[in-house]
Amino acid sequence: MKTSRISGFYNMTVEERRKLLHEMGFLTAEDLNTISNRSSLDLETADHMIENVVGTYELPLGLGLNFLINDKDYVIPMVIEEASVVASASHIARIVRESGGFRTEATERVMIGQIQVVGCPDFLEAKEAILRQKQTLIEAANNAYPSIVTRGGGAIDLDVRILNEEAGSRFTQMLMVHIYINTCDAMGANIINTMVESLAPVVEDLTNGKVYLRILSNYADRCLARATCIISPQLLRTGDFSGEEVRDGVILAYELAASDPYRAVTHNKGIMNGIDPVVIATGNDWRAVEAGAHAYAARNGTYSSMTVWSKDEEGNLVGELELPMSIGTVGGATRVHPLAKASLEILGVESAKELAQVIVAVGLAQNLGALKALATDGIQKGHMALHSRSVAIAAGATGEMIDIVAEELIKQKQIRVGKAKELVEEYKK
Ligand SMILES: CC(C)(COP(=O)([O-])OP(=O)([O-])OC[C@H]1O[C@@H](n2cnc3c(N)ncnc32)[C@H](O)[C@@H]1OP(=O)([O-])[O-])[C@@H](O)C(=O)NCCC(=O)NCCSC(=O)C[C@@](C)(O)CC(=O)[O-]
Ligand SMILES: NC(=O)C1=CN([C@@H]2O[C@H](COP(=O)(O)OP(=O)(O)OC[C@H]3O[C@@H](n4cnc5c(N)ncnc54)[C@H](OP(=O)(O)O)[C@@H]3O)[C@@H](O)[C@H]2O)C=CC1
């Protein structure tokens, strides 16, 4: 049985880590080769992915460890430039696994396509006309992309709203048609956009209006993933802080984020610290996930915390995170970028639904990592200690000098570039 509980992984060299992962069965020989390549994204592939290519841009790929989700062990590929994020996720995952691990679930992968119609002579009649032809429109959408139906998905429902109907609205009155489409394991942008574009002429005929926009909505509120964890307070004890103090500090931090948008934005940034790196590692569209997540955090009218932290009757800390998760395990760059392919294999996920659940579990862990630090020692101790190596590099340290300068910065409690430059100069003498 593969376990993601690999103690002391961070003390090994990069080579030792790779070898161990291969021996443990997390990395196939092919993935090992891909990961070991100095530039795994070759220029020719890159030149076909986007426009005006002049090179490729590398970021670190780290592994979140200790994750137990629905009784399955996961090693989590995370691509990120910021120090301490991977350590923090692994730290919380270690605590949560001792409490039984994360529990996750996901809705069916239903995405939304939108069609904008303006200039209808009678908007109510236009809405009725579309609703009367609902089944025909759904069938027409499916005929435009039959392969997704063969895969078990496709258009399943439709509804219509009239926008700006109130007298005196400063905006033009318009009809918004929503098509609900199960995109299976794809994020589905191309499936959805093909379907809504194909429906435009028939929608114009039915409404006597003019269709403008035909595009998916990134507010994927029917494609949700949810993670929860229940943690015994004794596992939260840190330094001089009792587990109960840490638990209560985390709950107070949540209550602050739920009451104040200024704090909610930073709180949620900490959640996206966990989510984006997995979305990026797997070749998914992180702008789509970011946009949907922040919109969902404002679904009750005020921008608020994405997570909820509370205490149960036994005094355990209970965490919950539910977000739209428009990602795929096929399509986009997921099978084009060699490292995205390797990341999906390291994860061992079998479907987009499973990947979505893993991603929200990492987001929940990341939020607790930050809140636990903030409610106890403060963020500087753990974060800046790990960031010190980047500070040393920014100051010109190379090779063995990096760790020496970083350690000195921590010792002197002055983790700043100016100080690091002084140390680099001294070292060179
Ligand atoms: C950094 C820790 C985890 C140290 O915390 P610690 O208690 O010193 O850790 P530890 O030495 O007891 O180790 C516990 C586990 O953490 C992991 N771990 C520990 N060290 C490493 C390492 N070097 N490399 C990889 N993994 C590491 C590792 O899994 C280890 O278990 P082990 O393998 O030893 O059995 C802690 O201080 C922490 O979580 N701090 C918070 C860091 C954080 O949130 N960073 C995000 C950047 S700040 C930000 O952008 C967001 C924010 C904060 O503004 C959001 C908000 O305001 O809400
Ligand atoms: N607003 C936004 O977010 C927008 C995003 N995008 C971009 O769109 C891309 C994602 O589009 P997407 O349509 O997902 O990608 P692709 O069109 O690249 O891939 C999806 C296709 O993969 C095939 N496929 C193979 N196996 C499966 C399976 N199990 N389940 C579902 N489909 C399968 C299907 O095609 P077949 O059945 O023919 O084999 C499906 O149409 C991203 O790069 C994103 O950046 C584009 C426009 C707007």
TrEMBL record:
The keyword NAD applies. One of its GO terms (biological process) is coenzyme A metabolic process. Pathway: Metabolic intermediate metabolism; (R)-mevalonate degradation; (S)-3-hydroxy-3-methylglutaryl-CoA from (R)-mevalonate: step 1/1. InterPro entries: HMG_CoA_Rdtase, HMG_CoA_Rdtase_bac-typ, HMG_CoA_Rdtase_cat_sf, HMG_CoA_Rdtase_CS, HMG_CoA_Rdtase_NAD(P)-bd_sf, HMG_CoA_Rdtase_sub-bd_dom_sf. Signal peptide: none annotated. Keywords: NAD, Oxidoreductase. One of its GO terms (molecular function) is hydroxymethylglutaryl-CoA reductase (NADPH) activity. It catalyses: (R)-mevalonate + 2 NAD(+) + CoA = (3S)-3-hydroxy-3-methylglutaryl-CoA + 2 NADH + 2 H(+). Its EC number is 1.1.1.88. The keyword Signal does not apply. PANTHER family: 3-HYDROXY-3-METHYLGLUTARYL-COENZYME A REDUCTASE. Belongs to the HMG-CoA reductase family. This is 3-hydroxy-3-methylglutaryl coenzyme A reductase. The lineage of its organism: Bacteria, Bacillati, Bacillota, Bacilli, Bacillales.
